[in-house]
Structures
1.
Amino acid sequence: MKAKTSSEPGIIEMLARSIAVLRKDLVCEFRTRYAINAIVLFAVTTLIAVSFSVGGAGISQPIQATLLWIIIYFSALSGLSRAFVKEEESRTATALKLAASPGAVFGGKLLFNILLLFMLEVVIVPLFVGMMSLQVKGWLLFVMVLVTGSIGLAVAATIVAAIVSKANAKGALFAVLSFPLLLPVLITGIHGTQAAISSSVFMSGIDDLKLLVSYTGVMFVVSLLVFRFIWED
Amino acid sequence: MVFKLLLGIWMSAVIVVAFLYAPAAEGFAQPDAARIIFFHVPNAIVAAIAFIVAAVYAVMHLHSRSLMDDAKSAASAELGLVFTALATITGSIFAHIQWNSWWNWDPRETAIIILLLVYLAYFALRTAVDAPDKRASLSAVYAILALPAMVFLMFIMPRVMFSLHPQDTLISEGKLDITYRLVLYPAILGFIGLYVWLFRIRTALAEIKLKMRRN
């Protein structure tokens, strides 16, 4: 990896550097598989607990959308703070600071968290559809809401993880700090998923998709701007 | 001192006018209850202003690294929290009189509760970090991140989702009745003055504390 240059790198260059950080994180992750194991097992455990307690009751579709998002949301909370806390615990943060620019570090960690959430959803969503006998009418909207929603969760969770890794009380603080910033994503995600379940018309959830994309976009830009103030302290 | 005195007179006048000059609104279950607009709406507006000011001082802190800017940011967030709590309480009282329910998870109610949580989390972060420099920069970053969430919760979400919140009831053809506007705008001004007064007290106190720590 190249050292930080004085000139501002272009978008392609930035992305390439972010992917370099992502590859490093993936290699580290697949040595131990700690984060992916924790997050997927957490989600499966929650799903089983939810499923056997309400399974036979035949709960309504809106509640199913809520349950799906709550499972994804709490699994995200259980695993996404690792990205930065790991660097502080293994004392590798300083080396990473020398090796990559703040933007690249944030981009890489964000991509890693997005990948982690996608891996989680690939496992958990089909399981959920099967175990809860969920009938989705608008699959395209359903998938798009899930994808944009998870990117939104990942953006807010990544920047809060960066804050928390520098604070003293790491465990409880991550949940407390990220909860309110993630809630707008959660609310619109649930709303959009309900629309996808109950109607096959794609436009029925377009407002929710717009909200998700704009909130995620704004959060991403703001996070990218303020990240170096946390990282370079 | 003069400012405080004038503010006291102004606010008293607003209260008197709100009850004696403004007519009861027709079309409400309890027409007199509509007067709460003169206290509820300014509270919400001042809360939004306070959070914006907190974010502006947070940006200034990241630029200057001055602990005074951090103290101002915290003071403004604190006042924003107080005004948000007041807006929540007055709104809940109105909901109870109007729809006979203190709390119903209307999008407005949901949004304001989350907003309270955002800034409570901000103060949780402040208590979690001991070193003043580190506390200042971390909480500045969080205050900046909280701003888009605030805008989303206060201005976007209640307008996109269906809400019972009166926006059209008092507003005929997009405009609030003239007598209501004549009371509401001075009330907003009065509450902004109240915020400025409290903010100046908090910053003076923070300045003294910073000086004492240095000595």
2.
Amino acid sequence: MSSRNSAGAPGPGAPARTSPPGGGLAGSGSLWGQVAKIALLGLFTALGVWAALPLYVGGNWAGIAVVAAVLVLVYWVYLSKRTVPLKYLLPGVLFLIAFQILPVLYTMSTSVTNFSDGHRGDKEQAIAAIEAYSVTRAEQGREFGLTVATTGDPETGELVFLLTDSDGTAYAGDIEGLRPLDDATVDPASGRVTEAFGYTVLTPAQVNARSQELEEFAVPVGDGAGIRANSLSTAYEGRATRVYDAGCDCVTDTSTGVVYTADDERGAFYSEDGERLAQGWRVNVGFDNFARFLFNPTFASSFFTILVWNIGFAVAVTGLVFVVGLAIALTLHVPRLRGKKAYRILVVLPYAMSSLAMYLLWRDMFNTDFGLFNQLLGTNVDWLGDAWTARFAVILANVWLGYPYMFLVATGALQAIPRELTQAARIDGAGAWQAFRHVTLPMLMVAMTPILIATFAFNFNNFNAVWLITKGGPFPPDDPSAGATDLLITYTYRMAFSQATAEYGYAAALSVMIFVIVSVMSVISLSRGKALQEVDR
Amino acid sequence: MTAATRGYRRSTGSAIALWSARFGWRHVVMIVVAAFALFPVLFVVSAAVNPVGTLSSARLWPTGAGFDNAADLFRNTPFTTWYANSLFFAVANAAATVFLSALAAYAFSRMRFRGRRVGMVGLLIIQMFPQFLAIVAIYLMFSTVGEYRPEVGFDTRWGLLLVYLGGALSINTWLMKGFFDTVPRELDESAQIDGATHAQVFFRIMLPLVTPVLAIVGLLVFISTINEFLMASVFLRDTDAKTLGLGLYQLVESQRNANFGMFSVGAIMLSLPTLIVFWFLQRYITEGLTAGAVKG
């Protein structure tokens, strides 16, 4: 951190501005500051090298360029004297760009594609998967001992087959093809590879987790033939029954004779009678994803029902916590009330409990068979099974968790209002309610409005509040995708992560729509508030 | 209030009537509110010490006391690992966020540079797109990162922490900037005239003066991280990598009735750090929470 004069006064009589040896590094500051700075830069360089090494091994030059660019940027910012504000902003901004802004942009670009389970990669990958999936055993096909491995992380790394043929020769086969494997350890008993340099051997559980991928994986060995897994420990060589022909841009099934033609609009192969091959590819679909939620009768009806409930939920929770919190604050806002401190601790308690655990607790208190409410009331109500009681339950739990915050804020705001004001109003003949309504409340609202807006925005996307209590349910019998208590965010999450097929394109489109909705609401509330003025102070 | 005035006029002779008009109803209201605030907490404590350990046998008031549930939790689940994971994320994220945010707030509050206004407004706008809306993109991003460096991929502490730090500059930075603005400029100007560098002004003068806002931002981040579910559920799938919150979720997901006693012990343990932090920071809490608000 440079600029300005030396702090540790270099000693009596020393000229004020001689530049010490070390060029740009030794600008100024105390010795310790300089040491810390050099150490941090060194550490950061080491991190950069650490990140670049596997990129180099994998031949990812674009990745290396990014790492190098970040390193150069960091060096420039911390060695130049003209970048003082950046020295303070850069660390946070780097994280912000990498893990918030880039993902947001990526989400936006995903929202105009058909990215989903059946449309993951590009067209070539789809063709490879179709051919591999259709490999059936050839009559004189070779058999191999199989060990499933990856080139990196067990869960996401690229699949590799470590194979041994009947002679005991080891091969490694991936999507590119088959090649001999020299330094592999082969277990003499089973005849399978147990270890090989550069590969991570998967445990049976890890293989199981990726079974779907394995179904669509075959090592191409040329001429439409491929090696496919037979079980966890054996593989066979076979021939693809579905073959791609670049001439007609179609896939022909050699056993049935059906021809599937590529449809580059929809990103899949279709036969004449509209039958589709499961493996498709990612294509740009423009605003189709958005259109589905806005105009398709079924989806539009669930989308708008959810939107209305979503707004209603956020309004109800914000309003209720405000009223309850303010009422408690007013009740305690009186001098010489005995036990005030004890009351304060008791009513703030819900805020100090873990909200995650408390949501789960509320869910179980509403349990039909064993829950506390039915036990205490002697009833047998299926609280979370009916749309309106479930909505009531979700709101009640959130009021319980949310009012202490409002109470704390309202107490602080009340204390900032001079008592003389209300007293003056009372002397002038105003009743207690009038004094509150026309003097206290307006002053209170000045302080509380930003908090209310923030609370509304928070509850609008309060994933835990709904997911942990009802998971969005109860669901109407004919539509398991949109439940009565679903917020837009839980609806989105289910679409991407909690369904039989992951619909990333639709989920991204929904995310963008939530963004637009929240933006519009924020712009309206901000333009009426004064928050932005603070920038110019 | 109306009741209070009426009582005041009528009961000039009776001190008891005066007291009940002025304070009595307040006590009644507060007892009702305290009961509402307390009963779920009472229930979870009662269930935690309930020797049978099922949801159906748990009562609002404890029917017996034992540590069987706690013992089961330690024996049957990797509780200590989960707990350590939760605390790691909460402490590391709170500390790093406070530091990164304070650095940025210092620049926004004390320096005038090109892009300052754009930066501050941009920070507000990016808040409207909460990080978890981009969860699909983050998931896909980290499947690639994990291929190159499994050390920061899924099921690791560093990977998820990095993602959390993406949200370090946020509305908290605004809150801090507002607080920094209340420190008189003359203080750091005089220090700079005396030869202090901007770094020394930041570490030696500003930071000690804004402790309340640092404490409150740390507390808020701590609480939200320890209760974070969405990102953690996508990132941490291996049993040993889970946080306590995820672990508890999984515990009652599989056996809602039978595991409730264990869950209750875990719920109390998960709340304990927050309760402790709250207790020690309570003098900052009202001050800090309202700092941004009262200034409007």
3.
Amino acid sequence: METILSIENLSKRFGPVQAVRNVSLEIQKGNVYGILGPNGSGKSTTLGIVLNVVNKTSGNYSWFGGTMQTHEALKKVGAIIERPNFYPYMTATENLELVCKIKGADYLKINEKLQLVGLIDRKNSKFSTFSLGMKQRLAIASALLNDPEILILDEPTNGLDPQGIHQIRDIIKMIAAQGTTILLASHLLDEVEKVCSHVLVLRKGEVLYSGRVDEMSANDGFFELQSDDLQQLQSVLLLLPKIEKCIEENGKLLVYLKAPIKAQELNRLLFEKNIVLNHLVLRKHSLEEQFLELTKSH
Amino acid sequence: MKRLLSIELQKIWKNRASRVLTLSYFILLTFIALIASIKFDLGPFQFHLAEMGIFNFPFIWHFNTYIAAILKFFLAIVIVSMMANEYSYGTLKQNLIDSLSKKEFIASKFLTVVVLSGISTVFVFVMSMILGLCFSSYNEIGIIFSDLDYILAYFVKLVGFFSFCLFLGILVKRSAFALGFLLVWNILEGIAKGLLKFQLFPNSNNDEFVMQFFPLEAMSNLIVEPFTRLSVVKSIGTQIGIENFKNYGVPWLEIFIVIGWTVIFMLMSYNLLKKRDL
């Protein structure tokens, strides 16, 4: 696997505030990474540091194995940070021409990318006349001009209406499908769950979790059970060796496991103890639940 | 270098306000030629400014560069706002993310300053040459091309002044405040001058020695006012008993001081940019 970006023990302090604390991360080619965290958890600061706009306090990062300087490496990166920044008095095309000059990309890419994000009809309109959704799409077009090896998106759907969010999400999925590595920072969990394969969870500048999305929760899920007598069910369950704990919620019993157990096996065990279930579901935590769990318990 | 320049010129040229200001600057420069048409006809006494010797070689180099330098404020506004806009549009951040290095960013701004100053210098040179050839009483090659150091001084003065503006733009981040700061700085230099002259060194020339190291004072000393050098004014002066021993030439020390300030302003700008988190 080719490493695109590696971050080692990166820290950033703004006066008394520790914005990022010892963040480490490896980005491999072809994966889609999500950085999750509540507002102010250090997502944008971390991205700002590797994109050369925020100075690190300590730690290291290197692009493409450290063979080139950051600003040279950024020629192979496409990034948008927070809000779309363009010259309001220039048209979409003129703005992209400027970006082409900076990145050393071909002008021919401009129409191709405008087509991709659906702005070709407005290419000669001034940037100041664009709606927020169009500005954000222009930013994506601009980030894609150099056919980057990695696309970095920081809150790409912030402040957009449902259609806008949907359009951006479709574009991201399309880009991910082409095999481009993506690093997506967001606090919208379903967004990350839908597109990302790996996730980094930050809170107050610290890494809480780093790894695959589907391995985020340590156990393999939990059971939702219901029977006529919940008390009896609970006391029987707690005698079983593989059960860690039971929590009653909305008239159902949530059963957490120490070791994996199959639904049919659990059902049989309970039936042998004369308990008939009227509800049995094996559930996995949604990313949102896992995220809340993580950020709460630490 | 061409790439950096074309990036920056596109930013300026596509902005209508900057374009209008730049164009009006050059149009106003040509209006210096209109001085030639100043004519008073008071019966027996006829006054034609062009024939008072202001367009004589080599004096014309001095006169025109002095007058042209007054108009530099037009370009100063363009330069301050080209820097301050990058902050207010957030495009400085975007440019850096789009792989421009901080060094390249400053270089592109400075190159633009040098190019605008260069165009203005060539413009003044050509215009003075034409005016001189039309009105000068002396047309010998040797005289025409003497005292050309005023043109050099003009160029250095513009580059120095615009570098100062650029630095203020980066420091203050808002064009109006940066221009205000320039004004405040000007007043501060004036106060310092007064203090030195009347309080610290009332009986010596030490105040001038110290003042020449201040940036705006050094720039203004590059081309001293030419009016008292005119023969008419001079003869009036002698009649009422004022002897004038002013040195009108371009002082080389001042050229080096201004170049020094230009370097300092650019280095400080780069350092500011490097240290700041965007």
